[in-house]
Amino acid sequence: MAVANQAPPVDAPPAGALTIAELLALHPYPEPWARERRVEHLWVFDLPVAPEALWPHLADTSRMNRALGLSEMQFEERDGQRWGSSTNGGVRHAWREVPWNWVANQWLTGLRIYERGFMRAMFAIQRLDRIATGTRLYLYFGAVPRGVLGALALRAGLPSMGRAYRRLLPQLAAQLDRPRPQILLAPPAAIEPAAAERLRRARAAMLTDGLPATCVDALVDWVRTGDELDLHRIQIRERARVWGLPERELLRVALHATRAGVLSLSWDTVCPHCRGVRDEHTALAEVAARSHCAACEVDFSTDTPESVEVTFRVHPSVRPIADQVYCSAEPAKKDHIRVQREVAGGAHERIAPRLAPGRYTVWRDHDGGWYLDVADGGPAQVRWAEHAAGTVIAAAPHAEIELVNDLPEPHTFTIEQARWSDHALRPGHLLAFQDFRDLFSEDYIGADVRLGVGEQTLLFTDVVGSTAFYATRGDPAAFVEIKRHFDEVFAIVGAHHGAVVKTIGDAVMAAFVTPLDAVRASRAIHDAFHPARADTPIRLRISLNTGPCIAVRLNANADFFGGTVNVAAKLQALAEGYQIAMAESTYQAAGVADYLAAQGAELEDLAYTSKALPEPVRVRRWSVYPAPAA
User: Fold this and answer.
1) Beta pairing partners, 166
2) Using CB atoms within 10 A of its CB, is residue 475 exposed (0-12), middle (13-18) or buried (19+)?
3) Residue 538 neighbours by CB under 8 Å, 6+ apart
4) Which of 20, 104, 390, 627 shows a CA-CA span of 20 to 30 A to 414?
5) What's the first-to-final CA gap in the chain, in angstroms?
6) Which stretches of the chain score pLDDT less than 70?
């Protein structure tokens, strides 16, 4: 049995609070260290906030540790394991970071095995229990000292952490109505005069270019005064939501700021398992076809939509931003993982994670890929043992889940949100964004890369009667008309949040992230070349299709490829002048049917058939300007 060297508490714990022994019965000190003499402290705080509100900030232990005044840490991955180091009290500490265990909104535990420093091992517990007035928070630290001097240093140092928590936590609880509590932010660092002048000139240039002042000022001010932990990796979609600004407009500003040397683009490959950043590339051309995650011991390709994320960095000439880390902060960096729990060989663990409705993926280490569908009315008891990959099990949001490890070795179970974060800016967003194609036309995809860009809506235009048009006008005059029509179509595509991918003869291929934008653009194109227009003979037909695509390098440009693109082009055979032939996948997309009904569109139900397709493609044809009756 371990002999605990417990210092007397500075403050008496609240009535009914767990003791150290009771807490360790719920979260046992890991073997073989449980039988070693240790120095341990337990602090208990009652806070007037719900566990769900407190958890995201406590789980971000890197930011919390900085606010507590702890030393910065360095981490590296070696042989699939995470190693950390820091300097405390003038002594260098180095350790192996054992994967944490947690149930989101409830508790987390972390173990470090030290190679050098005051300790041989450190075990930490944070537990959030719901009480009538909010949350009862337990903070436990138990260290196995390295000799007598290590024990003395720990007894002297750990109480100061308690004082820091007593200072920090009430202020944190009072500021949880803010997107980022002020107590967790570092004071803004002063930037050099030359950098300030560069920011001033960039702001003036962007305003002169007609970019929205609210977006320009928000971004420039944040670059100047923002917290370095936030600025290290900027997610523009997340910033737009925090600031309440239009996402596309803020993205435009970020791209122009990149061209002005205020920001830089980063194309980050993301592991599909831990969802951590594995590689950071300054150019699209550097993204490889495959990547490797040492932590998960898996290889993965970049041909899935989630495998690459586009972020921004502050350009070092404006403000050097170091990658500061004060803790590994696993639960915060892996927010999609709602449960991570190691289960001993031949053992089982019961948890009640209170999962929000939705689909979750369950893994046992890297095996599994089982699904947990959480919905009201599901079973209140779930026993999770060996299942075939793809097995779907239902559960209620409040269900108790039993994790069964029927293997002799310990294994870690994870329950992860199947849905990826919608904060991420994916390559498909940029490649279907006209400002990116205009500002970064020199960016290209590697020759062997098939970059997943997710669902896109492809729009193809075609000039009706082009053969007779060229014959009657002659090539020089025809070219002038075609070029003028390109300019108008390009402008309409851009105004409807799409991007021109390429021209093919006198045809245009454009891409849209949102199908409704593509349908509206199609209507606007036909309106631009309406039947009564006399200054040009150009009349068009349009086809649309929605589905998954990949991006490839073609003639040094980023082009879209795949069955979705092929069908979109083939559907032109079903359209004539002033008509739009759209695949059923486009018609069924959010908002499209309502928009067409509001336009009074009368749709013809057709089908496109091909020997190359397993079944016909259902098509809705809209005659924007019906042909006059004979």
Assistant:
1) none
2) exposed
3) 463, 469, 481, 482, 485, 529
4) 20
5) 98
6) 1-11, 326, 444, 554-556, 627-630
